[in-house]
């Protein structure tokens, strides 16, 4: 089985960070979004991956090749952003007729991946939500067989959202439906959607079962990313945090390697990247990237990119990479 991870999106809702950093490489609870996804799949026994890259794709390729040299990795370029359906179709020559596990690159789910892989039918990961209008939605019968899928319906007939996790056995039919949709210009919300191809497969008799995931974390916006960071930090406790000079650490926190922290209060719910310097500062409920420098700042509910230099006093920031701010 191969894993397909589409990571070609521009991540517009996370700007300014995604001007210089792919969304999948944003730090989260001591890792990156992408490494959390890949580690979960590797633990389940998957060793071959197909990454669909686009915007800043060379950074993703470099990251994967450096961090996972033991894996078989393919990189497919999506030069025009035409939707997830278009992205998946680009992998056809690599996947051929192998079974695939598709995991969207901005979604973290908690589930039994080994159980999903071993299932006798194709599976679609689902989770009950209060308002399903912003998601793909799966309708199902009393046996949890998917009878219909719709992308972002205005009047949903189900509150079971598709969470971005798909185990597909019938890959020949998948690619045929994707190609037919593109040939016939079948789009939803101006893009070629994977959801529409799945609906085509269901219409042609492919059996798909709903798989209810344990948890589903949205990493597409600053607010939800910070919430996800806090949840994952709590799940990963306890962390081994070395002592820092005249500094109070309030768990849960994750502090990267080679950080220089003095005279500060860090936590709760803080993730700090490698080689970052913090002095005379208070940081809580925030993510701080690598190689950043914070001096005399008060940060809460903030997302700070890598190589940022911040001096002065602040309350809530959303700062991208390579940024210098003096608030004194």
From TrEMBL:
Q: Where is the Nucleotidyl transferase domain?
A: 2-233
Which superkingdom does the taxonomy of this entry point to? Answer: Bacteria
Which CDD domains does the record associate with it? NTP_transferase
What would be an example GO MF term here? transferase activity
Keywords of the record:
Transferase
Against InterPro entries, the record matches this protein to: NTP_transferase_dom (IPR005835), Nucleotide-diphossugar_trans (IPR029044)
Q: What is this protein called?
A: Glucose-1-phosphate thymidylyltransferase
Species: Chitinophaga costaii
């Amino acid at each position: 089985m191969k894993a397909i991870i589409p990571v070609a999106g521009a991540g517009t809702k996370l700007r300014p960070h995604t001007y210089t950093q792919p969304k999948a490489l944003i730090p989260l609870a001591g890792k990156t979004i992408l490494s959390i996804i890949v580690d979960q799949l590797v633990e389940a026994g998957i060793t071959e991956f197909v990454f669909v890259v686009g915007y800043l794709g060379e950074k993703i390729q470099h990251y994967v090749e450096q961090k996972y040299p033991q894996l078989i990795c393919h990189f497919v370029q999506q030069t025009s952003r035409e939707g997830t359906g278009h992205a998946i179709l680009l992998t056809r020559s690599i996947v051929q007729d192998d079974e695939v596990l598709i995991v969207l690159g901005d979604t973290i789910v908690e589930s039994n991946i080994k159980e999903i892989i071993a299932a006798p039918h194709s599976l679609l990961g689902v989770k009950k939500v209060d308002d399903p209008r912003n998601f793909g939605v799966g309708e199902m019968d009393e046996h949890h067989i998917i009878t219909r899928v719709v992308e972002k319906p205005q009047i949903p007939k189900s509150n079971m959202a598709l969470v971005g996790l798909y185990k597909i056995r019938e890959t020949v039919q998948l690619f045929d439906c994707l190609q037919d949709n593109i040939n016939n210009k079948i789009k939803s919300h101006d893009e070629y959607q994977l959801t529409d191809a799945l609906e085509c497969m269901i219409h042609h008799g492919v059996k798909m079962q709903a798989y209810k995931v344990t948890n589903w974390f949205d990493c597409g916006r600053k607010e939800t990313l910070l919430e996800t960071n806090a949840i994952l930090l709590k799940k990963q406790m306890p962390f081994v945090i070395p002592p820092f000079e005249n500094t109070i650490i309030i768990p849960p926190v994750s502090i990267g390697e080679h950080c220089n922290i003095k005279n500060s209060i860090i936590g709760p719910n803080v993730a700090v990247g490698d080689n970052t310097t913090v002095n005379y500062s208070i940081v809580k409920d925030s993510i701080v990237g690598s190689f950043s420098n914070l001096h005399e700042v008060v940060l809460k509910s903030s997302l700070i990119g890598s190589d940022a230099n911040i001096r002065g006093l602040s309350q809530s920031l959303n700062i991208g990479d390579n940024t210098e701010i003096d608030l004194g």
